[in-house]
Structures are given as structure tokens and as C-alpha cells.
Write a structure and sequence with these properties.
Layout (H helix, E strand, L loop, with lengths): L2 H59 L13 H7 L2 H33 L5 H9 L6 H12 L4 H8 L13 H26 L3 H9 L4 H28 L3 H8 L10 H10 L3 H30 L5
Helix pairs in contact: 1-12, 2-12, 3-7, 3-9, 3-11, 4-7, 5-10, 7-9, 9-12, 11-12
Length: 312
């Protein structure tokens, strides 16, 4: 083969490589454009309906008023922290979440483990715990009013045992009533999440543990719980979010101004909005968002430390 033919072959080979590189570059640009086109509606919706309103709330929290946009920095936050209603609402919300969220996680996990065993009437029990998800909120509230009213079912039963009637929703027991309502409404969904996670645990590990004579406690804490850590994190975050939504049931049960033990952050926000006090409401919303972000970041950190050795 002549030198000219060798050079021509080499030139064509280099041209082919350049063309393939060009095609790959075009394909990459095309893929990026398609991705941007598909993501744009969602990103636009999030920006318009979530990010932009939150930025407006942050802006309102650091100015004097909508009519007087004087920058006051932390003054509004200090006013909110010194407000007795805000402190009451924050204390009650924190107490409710501190009680209800761990119970929602632990009890739903316990139910999932129970239904994983060979017990009679598993389908019936599963249906029983899922049925609250299908009941409208108004019906739930009606049931709770019938049961926990001063002349309700529970007090009638207690009266038969010689116990004095209790005004459940206007007494120190009020938080217990709402915790029971929260658990009754949310345990079923959390249980299904844990049941799905339990089915994804490698059976080989459990079989090896059985062969080596590991106890049930050892298998749970060292195998199952480690593989369940992402689900525990998700259920905990979901329960925290749902605990902030319990205002809906409390409002239908007790109205705008309930017993002090049931006055939640949502009551404070709702009443502040009705009074058109945007600065106070915005400052409280920012403070609540910061607490939520810090709490969720802490949960992510705990899950990362506890479950990192079982990833993948």
C-alpha cells in the first residue's frame, strides 16, 4: 500500500472519530434540551407556588409593615418570641409532636412486625388498621365528639364504674385525646410502609442468623432495624408533617380558641391571619420553617450514621 493511501486511510479514520464525537456531543445537547423541556413546567410550578411565596414571607418578616417597608431585621422575630400566644402554641405543638411522632413510628413498626408473623385473621387486622384512611375527617370528628363529649360514650362507661365524668377536650387530658386521634388516623399508612420495607430485607441474612442461633432481638436490632432505617426516617418525617396538620381535627372539635392545651401553631397562624398581622405571621412561619429544616437535617444525619453500612 502506497504512502498516499495510508495517509488517506488515516485521514478518514480521524474524520470518522471527529464525526462520532460531534454526534455524541449533539446527542448530549439534545438530551439536555429534552430534560430541560420536561422539567420546566414542574420547576416553574414549584418556583411560582412555593419558592416565590416563601421569599415573600421572608421579606414580610424583616420589614415594618406592607405599607411601611422599613427594614427592621430581627425586631419582628423578637416580638413573636415575646408573644404569650406564640409561646403557648409552640409549646403545645412541640409537646404533641414529641409524643405523637415517636408513638406513630414505634407502634406502626410493631404492627408491621406483628402482621409479618403467622397469626390468624391477618387480612382482617390489616383492613382494620387501614380503614381510618378511608373515613372523611368530618366523620372522624363526629366519632370523637360522640365518644369524648362531657355526656359522651366514654363518660357513660366511666359513670357505670362510679367514676366522675371528665370534660376531655377542656381538661389536662385534651392532648391525650388528640394523640389517640392522630395515631388512629395515621398508623395504618405507616404500617403499610414498614411492611413493604420488611419484605425487601435480604432473606439470606435472616437465614444465616437463624442457623447461627441468633436471638429474635439480635436479628431485629442488628439486621432488620438497620435495613429499615431509611423507612424509619421517611415515616418519621411524614409523621412530623402530619402532626402539624392536626389543626384540622382540633379546629373542627373546638373552634378558633380551644382549651389552652390544644392551642397549636396553626391556631396562632390562623388567628394572626384573621387579624391581618402579616409581620407576626410571617416571622412565626420563618421560625417554624427553620425548626423543621433543622429537625429533618438531624434525622437525616442520624439515619446516615445508623444505616450507612447497609446501603446498596
Amino acid at each position: 500500500m502506497s504512502m498516499k493511501a495510508v495517509k488517506e486511510k488515516k485521514r478518514k479514520k480521524q474524520a470518522g472519530k471527529a464525526q462520532r464525537a460531534w454526534n455524541r456531543s449533539n446527542d448530549h445537547v439534545r438530551d439536555v434540551m429534552h430534560s430541560v423541556a420536561f422539567l420546566t413546567p414542574s420547576v416553574t410550578g414549584v418556583a411560582v407556588f412555593f419558592i416565590l411565596p416563601f421569599l415573600v414571607v421572608v421579606y414580610y418578616s424583616v420589614i415594618r409593615s406592607p405599607m411601611n417597608p422599613e427594614f427592621v431585621f430581627l425586631e419582628n422575630f423578637l416580638n413573636v418570641l415575646n408573644n404569650a400566644s406564640f409561646r403557648t402554641a409552640a409549646k403545645n405543638t412541640a409537646m404533641f409532636s414529641a409524643i405523637a411522632v415517636p408513638l406513630a413510628v414505634v407502634l406502626s413498626l410493631g404492627l408491621a412486625l406483628m402482621l409479618e408473623c403467622r397469626i390468624p385473621c391477618k387480612s382482617l387486622l390489616r383492613t382494620f388498621f387501614l380503614s381510618p384512611m378511608m373515613v372523611p375527617v368530618a366523620s372522624v370528628v363526629l366519632i370523637w365528639q360522640v365518644v369524648f363529649h362531657y355526656r359522651g360514650t366514654l363518660n357513660v362507661i366511666l359513670d357505670n364504674f362510679g367514676t366522675e365524668a371528665i370534660d376531655w377536650l377542656n381538661s389536662p387530658y385534651c392532648l391525650l385525646v388528640i394523640v389517640v386521634l392522630f395515631l388512629w388516623k395515621n398508623l395504618g399508612y405507616n404500617m403499610i410502609l414498614f411492611m413493604a420495607a420488611l419484605n425487601n430485607i435480604p432473606k439470606e441474612l435472616l437465614e444465616v442468623a437463624d442457623v447461627e442461633g441468633a436471638s429474635a432481638a439480635h436479628k431485629f436490632f442488628n439486621i432488620k432495624l438497620r435495613y429499615l432505617s431509611p423507612t424509619v426516617l421517611f415515616v418519621a418525617i411524614l409523621s412530623i408533617i402530619n402532626s402539624f396538620k392536626v389543626f384540622r381535627e382540633i379546629y373542627l372539635l373546638t373552634g378558633d380558641y380551644p382549651y389552652d392545651g390544644l392551642y397549636m401553631m396553626q391556631h396562632f397562624m390562623n388567628n394572626t391571619f384573621n387579624n391581618l398581622d402579616y409581620q407576626k405571621m410571617s416571622s412565626a412561619a420563618v421560625l417554624m420553617a427553620l425548626v423543621m429544616v433543622a429537625l429533618i437535617a438531624l434525622l437525616f444525619k442520624v439515619e446516615d450514621v445508623f444505616g450507612k453500612d447497609v446501603e446498596g
